[in-house]
């Protein structure tokens, strides 16, 4: 009876009215309430509801093997609840675990997923207490002789609710700024914002009472706005837009449609670039978005679209509406800070935290990893061919067909790697091409793994034919070490670029190629010297009738 009791108990728990209510609440909250009335409460409801029924679902899966091993149902349940508790704590408090879960869920769903890293969500673990009490109560009651179809349906519904995460919010654009008294109001527009039809594109208005650092979560209605604010939002904007500091009219700023803010200290007579994306960082932002390192963002829209000065407590700051990047605030000390507004949040300029670093190195630099591996394989082959040619030509040894059948798959693999690399490079890294790019990058990474078999076999044959096998093997080792050193050395400039230590991507690429050339030259020198030593005794004899040569010709 105990062999199937854990599975039966888990199904009965999933089919219990309280559990069905929790599943319904999760689906309703994720797909309706979060989109219509987002708040802190809606963020916690999903965790509470999910933690109530997820242990039952996990217990059903664990019971399939554990019931056959005659594990007690109480122990199966304890394992399911323990795994649930540990898993939830990790993804809510440990950035690497959170990033790993987000990446795995995104690949399973085929779309960007998001799990908020928030330790305060651990309060939802209280839902495990009533869930455990429900399990204990059901375990004490005898199970029915037959499984009810409703329980199996509840199992499928629970699994669906677990993976059916809410879609990413629609992209928005911070397009207007209005300062009134001590408050700042922003106009939120759809992503495809256009100045020519501005009066019909503003979809929501948010307010900040601390100079743009934080914003009201719920959009304001037109009736809630002061009359002067509503009047300014009805006015359209024409570029170039110039605003001057009310306390210092000689200090002015302007936007012209370019991705920068110009500044002037002489009342607009001359202009210089006051703010723009740092050099080389725009490519980082684009690739981070296109390759999924930044979740729930489809493209980059820096703006700027509007400017306004804000004075509070004797401090005057400049605010810049920066599209789907939120807003940019210039403080009196001259620093520029970026802040999120609703679903418009800044894209990092570089790797700034563990999660983005993990995602970036695995997702964004995947192509660079493949290129570095491919470069290592090509250098290995070049050095091997150099060593072979020296030894074989000086000893007049022919490996015959064995050389051909080893070289043929090597050249085929290299050709496929070059072709896949070129195709990946030619593709535009946009979200709709991500799947095709991922397939080709997989080829880039897997094909070089098939190549090393050939050089190992060839060098074994060459060393066995050489009169001095030890230098021949050392030449083979020099080829391997040169190729093995290429990957970390040639790939290192790209993480340095991601960290911001190398400002421009092209500089990292040039440095990577230069490292490859240096390693190739140094490796060629070492292989040439060792290969010559491998045939030195034959050259010293000065005769083509050495025993080894005669045996090879025979």
One letter per element, helices H and strands E, the order comes to HHHHHHHEEEHEEEEHEEEEHHHHHHHHHH
Number of helices: 19
> Sheet with the most strands?
4 strands, antiparallel
Strand order in the sheet with the most strands: 4-5-6-7
Q: What is the CA-based Rg, rounded? A: 33 Å
N-C termini distance: 77 Å
Helix content: 55-70%
Quick one: overall form?
A: flat
The parts where pLDDT drops under 50 for at least 5 residues are: 194-200, 427-438, 538-554
Number of domains: 3
Q: SS-based structural class?
A: alpha+beta
**What portion of the residues fall into strands of 2 or more residues?**
5-15%
Quick structural gist:
This protein is of the alpha+beta class and 554 residues long. The chain has helices at 2-14, 17-36, 40-66, 73-93, 95-109, 128-140, 149-163, 227-234, 281-290, 354-364, 366-395, 401-426, 434-450, 453-465, 469-491, 493-498, 505-534, 536-541, 547-553; strands at 172-180, 183-190, 204-208, 241-245, 248-255, 260-264, 272-276, 306-312, 315-321, 327-330, 336-339. A 4-stranded antiparallel beta sheet has the order 4-5-6-7, with no helix packed on it. It has a 4-stranded antiparallel beta sheet with strand order 8-9-10-11, with no helix packed on it. A 3-stranded antiparallel beta sheet has the order 1-2-3, with helices on one face.
How would you describe the overall organization of this protein?
The protein is flat. The chain folds into three domains: 162 residues, no CATH class; 176 residues, no CATH class; 189 residues, no CATH class. It has a four-stranded antiparallel beta sheet with strand order 4-5-6-7, with no helix packed on it. The protein has 554 residues and is α+β, with helices and mostly antiparallel strands. It contains 19 helices and eleven strands. It is 56% helix and 12% strand. A hairpin with a 7-residue loop joins strand 6 and strand 7. The N and C termini lie far apart (77 Å). Helix 2 packs parallel to helix 7, helix 11 packs parallel to helix 17 and helix 15 packs antiparallel against helix 17. The longest helix has 30 residues.
